[in-house]
Structure formats: C-alpha cells, structure tokens
Amino acid sequence: MADKDPEADKSSIFDLVVQADLVGLEEALSTKQVDLEARDSAGRTALHLAVIAGTAEICRYLIDHGANLDSWTGQGEAVVHLAAKRGDVDILRTVMESVSTEERKIQSEDQPSSDKRDRSVHVDSLTRKYRMSPLYIAVALAHVTAAEALLTTYHANANIIAGEDNAQRGTRIAHVLEAAMQHPRDVCRSLLTMLLQHGASLLDPSKETISQSLLLLALKRDEDVLDIFAELDKQNFTAAITKSVWFEMMSSLNPLTMAIESGLENTALKLLKYGAPPQVDFNSSLEIVALRNPFGRNPEEGVKNNFWQPILKAAMKEMPRLMIDLLDRGADPNSTLTEHQAEYMLQHRECRNVLDIVKAKLMELRNWNKDEENSGYDTRGTPEEAKQIKRKEDAVSQLIKEYEAAEAKLVSMGAKISDGLNLQELPTPVSIRPNKRLQLHAPSSSEAETQTQQQSEEIDFRKLETLEDGHQALFAACREGNAALVKALTLGRWGPDLKFPPILISAVSGYSKGPFLTAVESKNYDIARTVVQIATVQQAGLADDEKNDLYNALADDQHPVESIKDALGEVQSTVPAKKIVFDSGSCFAGEKQKDVEMLRFSIEMESSVSSEQSDFDRRIRHAWALVEHGDWPEAFEEYVRATGGPFKHVVSQGQLKGKSQLDRLHQFSPLLQAAWSGNLEMVRFFLNKDRAMAAYKHFAENHDFTTRKAGPEQSRAEFITAVEKWMDNRNNLVLHCAIVSRNEELVKFILSARPELLEVQSIDGWTPLLTAAIHQRVQALHILLEAGANPLATDPYGRNMLHLLLFSPTGNYVMEPEKVASVLLSMDRSLMHQLLEQRCNESPGGQTPLARLISNRPPPNAVFTALLEISNPTPLEMLDGAGYTPLHMVTNSSMENLIRPVIEKAPHVMFYEDPQGRTPLDVAIEKQLHGFIECFMSNYARTKEYPSSTSIIHWPLFAFGTDYSGPMHTRDPYQTWEISQELANSSGSQQFPRKLVTQTQREEIAKWYE
C-alpha cells in the first residue's frame, strides 16, 4: 500500500470546504487522519476558509469536530472578523454562538477576568493590523443585519474605536459611527439609528469629550444625520453645539464656525435652529478641548485670541444669508477682530469689524469682470463655456444682492466702519495692446513686389531727399546691376547738397535681407562681390594694408582712392563683412530657387571670408540641415564639393582647416538622419550613395591635404574611408527611422526598395513592427503587417507589439485611442487572441499586454474598451509574476473607472485567489475597510461643491459646469468596493466558486519571480 501524502490530504480538505461538499468532508474526516489546525499556503485553517467561502453547515461541522475558534490567520484576523467581513448572518451566528459558548467556559475557569478575556476570541476582539472589531467591520461594509445581530444578540460595544493614530503609517482612529456615515443615505440612517439606540454617542469614550472628527463628519453629511443625533443622542448633541470649542495650534472652532469654515451654510443655519449660540461668550461653561498645543499655551487664552465670532467667519466665507440669521438671533453687529486675528489676516488686511469685511467683499465682487475669465482647453469656445460664464455671473450677482441686504441690516443696527478704512474702487484697466501692430520682420518677397520700384537708371543720387529714398535706391541698384549707383551711395556723400554720408552696408543688412542678398537673388554676382568689398572697407579696425588693396579695387574715375578714404572716414561699421554674408542666407536662396550657379557663388563667398569656430559650426549645421530637410540633393552635392561638410574641416580662403571627423551630434549616417526627418527625396538620394561619395572624392581631390601629418595621399585615403564608414553606419535601421518620422509614403518606399529590412532588429531588439508600436505609428503598423511582418515578434523582454503599443517603455499611453481602437478591432481575432495571451519578462514578469496596461492605471478609453471586446476570458484569468490577475490590480489600486467593465467581462475572476489567499473581491473589501482609517473619505461623505477656502470670484469656470460634482478624487476605495460588491451580489457567489491557487501556479509564479 502506498504511503499517504499528508499535503494531498490537507489540500483536499481545503478544496472540499471551498466546494461546500459536506458529504465529502464527512467522508474525509472519518477515513483519514486530518489535522484541522493545518494551514494552507495563505496561513488559514479549514475553519477560516469555511467562514470565508463555505457554508454555515460546513462551519458547524468543523467546529463540532474540534476546529479551534481562537486561531488567527496570517493577516491577523480571527473567525469573528472573517464572519463579520463576509456578512452572512447564518455563518456569523454559527461562529458567535460557538465563541460565546467557548467564552463562558473560559470565564468559569479560576483565573482573573482580564486574563480570561485576553486568551479567547470574543465579540469585541480587534484585528492585529488595523485594530478593527467585528462590529466596526460589519458597519464599514454595510452589513446591516450582521451589525444588528452583533449589537442585539452578542452585545458588541457600540462605542468601540478602530485604527491607530500613527502619522508614520498614515492611519487615524475611527469611531464606528464614522464608519456608518461613509455609506449612502438610507444605509447611513439605518446604521446610525441602530448604533445610537445601542449606546453609541458623540462622546469620545477614551477622552470623555465630544469627538471633533465625528461631529465634523456629521456636519458634512447633514441629510437628516443631525436630526438623528438630535433625537437619539440629544444630551451629547446639545452639549456639543452649545459648549464645545476645539483649540489646535492657531485655530479655534466650535461646531457652528466649523460648519462655516467648511462652506456648509445650510448646515450652519440648521445648527442655529437646534440652539447653537449666534455669539460665543467666553465663560466657564465652555468645554475647551486642546487637540494639539505644541507651544504649551493656555487653552483658554488661545481660544480667546483665535476664535472668530460666527458673524465674522460668515462674512469672510461669503455667507450673507447666514449673517442676517445670526443678526436676527442676537449676534453683535459691531463684532470686531482681536489684535491677534488682525495680525494674521491674509486677505482684506485693512478690515477690523464685520461691516469692514462686508464692504471689502462688495468691492471685490463688483470689480469682477467676466471678460477676464479663462475656461479650460476642452471647453473653450463651446456652448458649455458660455453656460459656465453665465452661471458664474449669476452666482456673483446673487451674492452681491445678499451682501447688500446684509450691509443694510448691519447699518440699520448701528454698525460702523473702522476709522481710517480706505477701500477704493479699482481704476478702469488700460489696454496695454498697441493700436498698431509693429512689423518685426523683413518684408516677404510678395510684400516687396507690391512696393513701387523705381528704375535705378532714372535715379540721380544727388536728388534723393531722405535716407529711406537712399536705401531704396541702393536696393534697386543691386537688383539691376547698377554698380555706379551702388558706389555713389556707399563710397561718397549723396542727396541734396550731398548732405547724407555714405550708406553703411551693415545698416541695411540683416537676417535674410540686405544689398548682398538682393544682388545674389538677381544674379548680379559682380555687384554682390562689390557689396562685400564695400562692407569690408567700411569696417572699423581693419588693417591699412588690407584696406589699401580694396580701395584700389573699388576706385574708378568717379571715386578715386583718396575720395573714398575721405568719405568713409565719416562712417565706420562694427559689423564684419562675413557676418553680412552669413546672415544674408544667400545659400538658402540658391537652394530655394534650385539654382546651381547661385548656390556655388554663395558657397564661394562664404568660403572667401575669414572664419571662426562658430562659423565652422554653422556650416556643419547647414550641411546637416540639407540632409534632414533639403528637397534638392544637388545642393548637398555642391556643399560637399566645396566644404566637405558636415565633417569638421572647413575650407577658408583656399586653405583646409580642422579635422576630418564628425562631432558627437552627427554620428548617424545621412541616410538614417534623412529617414528620421521623413525626407523622402534625400532618402532616395542616399540609398544609392554613389553620387554622395563622388562629391566627397571631388572635395578630397581638389583640396590641399598637405597640412596633415600623414601626408596628402594617405590623408585623402583616410578621409574617404571615414566618409564611407559614416555613410554606411547602421544603414540597416533606415526603416526604423522612417517609421518614427510619421511619413507613410517613405515607409512604403523603403519597404519596396529594401524588403530585407522588414525583420531587422535594433540594438534594443526592436523590429520595425515593434518600433511602430512603441511610437504609436498606427498606419505604419498596418503597412508593416500587410507587408508580411511577423506579428508575434518580441523584444528581449518578451514584449510583443501589443505590450509596447498599449504602454510604451518610456511610459506613454496611447495618444489617439479612437484610431488605435479602430485598428485593433479590424485585426484578425485569432491573431489578437495569441497576442493578448503572450507574457513578457518585464517586472514583475508573466504579464500579458492587458495586465501590463492595467498595472500602469490606464484611462477607460476606446482602446481599453476594444481590448475587452476582443479578448476572451483567458488573459484575465492569468496570474502574473506577483501572483495577481488583472482584476487584482484593478481592485488593489482602486481603479473605480475600470472595475465594472473588467468584472462584466470575466465575473468569475472575482473569486480567483492570489498566493496570499485573497480574491479581487477580498482586496476591494480590504481597501474599503482600511480606506477610512488611512484617511480616505467615501464620495458620500465628501463635499460636492468647490472648496470654500477661496472667494467665489476666484473659482475656476469648471466649478460652474453642468456636470461638476466636487473636487476630483481618483483611486476611490469605497467606490471600487461598492461596484465590486454590487456585481458580486448580482452574479451570485455560489455561481462562481472560490478558486484556490494550485501548486502548478505557485511554481510558475516562482519561475517568473526568479
């Protein structure tokens, strides 16, 4: 007979419990030696699992056969907590009756009562991690019937406190009444009524004072909550609203000012009806609670210095209706700020009493201008923007009327403004926009053509009356090749009585304009040379020997050398001629017109002037710009023949300077750079490198390499080798670069010219298809698939195209979700199923594309919807390297906007356990239980209005939108749990049994983890 496997017996027991197989369980316990206290891999006994997922009969059977009621799970929970968490009253009664019986046995033992209590699990036992009682758990999870059973039958403590005040862990203490107020109105009312009827109260049992956090939550909830407290906890409620004052640091509040501070005007009005004092008198009847007082101040003195009378607080918080009610109930119309309060006023610092504040608010509201409002980008110019502006305008107008009524009331009661108060209306704003737009650029060619142009032959330089006339004449002379007029205007005096000095070439030159450019564009190259010579002799600081040569070259019968010297002695330019040549952009003009002669001349002129390092860099950039953006390959050839660019050596005045190397920015081949820029014309040129190489060889043959140490011939050979290496550098990635460029025609061209590049991998292991996915080039993706690219290709991390498309390695979501969704829906479904089930090795390992996307918290857009529509349930059932299904991740991160579509796609996965024994539903429950203790407020307990800390005129327009429902809170644990519970109840937990993690799955998870 084979040896028994105790692990198999243990596993079978847990399976029987989960399957609620009572017959099988009875048979197993009667025929095998099974340890009921044995733990599964999640640290649970059979009884724990029965309470979590079994039936009341299974629980009773295990208890009757000796299952230990005092055992705790690995997460620090006892059976009473598990029963309360589940909310099944039959299971709760089964457990509690057995616990009560066990407790009575222990109580009968001859030991001190405190020791007896500590040894056993009881109705008020607290969980080990967050210190929650069964009653708190039942209330927090809205298990009304279970909570009622705990209170009425088992006498649970209705005032028990959960949690721990620990700033490092980010936790707080919470009263069970606070947990009740997290729920919707009907559930909240039922639980509050039940708890108050069983002894719960506003009184903090640990401090014998009114709980501020509990009262504040009651104020925020309102919705009859105050009525319930006033009826069922009348004594404590009355004491709270009439006597309690809380002092903390520099803040002092009572319930009425707490409501005002929170922007709860209607609640404040209700408190007054219940008897809250409209004016607080500081006497011995006040119950002052010092919450945090690090400076050791006297609480009574601190309250007097920091307490704002309700009418002052209402005036500041823009509640004029409340002010009128306060005045009617006896508030002092001359209420004044204390000196301490006045010192710390952040707004309206000149105000000292309530009427001051009202007048300051009215001035502020009246000065509001709706034309200065700015809406969000998504609503700008839409009907919604107009609605928001109209609503804000109406709200401001209504507030002005209410403040005016409050002002009249105050004045009628004898209120006066403070001495020296100086409130002035804002002056009418003056527009800073000039009436006439200034032209900050050179006129375009079309603008220039519209200007009246006089023929230079008709111009007499002695009759030009203004400087502008002289400038226009100079341009006309350059355009028409009139050298005599050019010299007359720049080498001597001109105008009536020769009153104007020579025109400085630099004064009428600049970026993409000037006499030099005009001459070049008109193909008057001799005139252009003359202009450069004139600009040179006009330059200050030029050596005499250099000037003399130019004087002789420029001199003629009308302008002898001495005459030129005398005239130019009057004007000196600080701008060198080379700057005029470079700034003119004459090379660009030649490239634009596709004129080889013009381009050659421009390159010659740039090379003829002395150059500095910055000029060398400019030429390198120009050569590179031709690669990236040029549409005329001949321009690149001409530039290379003359300069050898973009290599660092440069030809200047016939001499070769620099080194035959590339700077760090330009290491990629010109083919890749052209493809990256989407330049189809230049890619076509560089795919056959013969013409480019011929240009570089021409440069090498026609320029002096004797300055190189290796000698001219060897230097030329080294240069050509460097060029060839550069031209061929990683050229097999040209398709990758074309994909990034977004030029679909370029992608198609390269595929037709170089089909062998379809599956080439980059250094990162990305094929062109994966590159298209990473950069979200959807059309390129479609083109590549049609061309036969392997759709199942993966990178070194095992990520396929869906992994990379849905969430890129750089952390980008899909930018065009509708477009991507359309492509995904059009793809073959069997292929999509294969892609969706592929797992990657990226941490934590084992993630499918959908799981990887969800782990990065995506928006619920069209892509997410399309993926769920395409996918079968298998990807949602898979555990990743951390042991989570995608639904575990959704609930663990409280993605309330994703929870419903994921559960509706695969509702059974709600009951799939992770290695810690938690289903997605369990995770949602835990997040909800821990959420309030971790300071998360449910959406039912949050304000639905814009925060009241700022004036209404400073509220953004979206706060007046038709769909605005309060400040946005992402990752809402309560809403995630609420939706999960709703869908779990609608599907029925019995329909989908709990699925435990198998040993095979554990081994697989361990493999991914490695």
TrEMBL record:
Signal peptide: none annotated. PROSITE patterns: ANK_REP_REGION (PS50297), ANK_REPEAT (PS50088). Keywords: ANK repeat, Repeat. Residues 101-123, 381-390 have a biased composition (Basic and acidic residues). SMART domains: ANK. InterPro entries: Ankyrin_rpt (IPR002110), Ankyrin_rpt-contain_sf (IPR036770). Residues 100-123, 371-390 are annotated as: Disordered. Pfam families: Ank_2 (PF12796). The keyword Transcription regulation does not apply. ANK repeats lie at residues 42-74, 764-796. This is NADH:flavin oxidoreductase/NADH oxidase. It comes from Trichoderma guizhouense. The lineage of its organism: Eukaryota, Fungi, Dikarya, Ascomycota, Pezizomycotina.
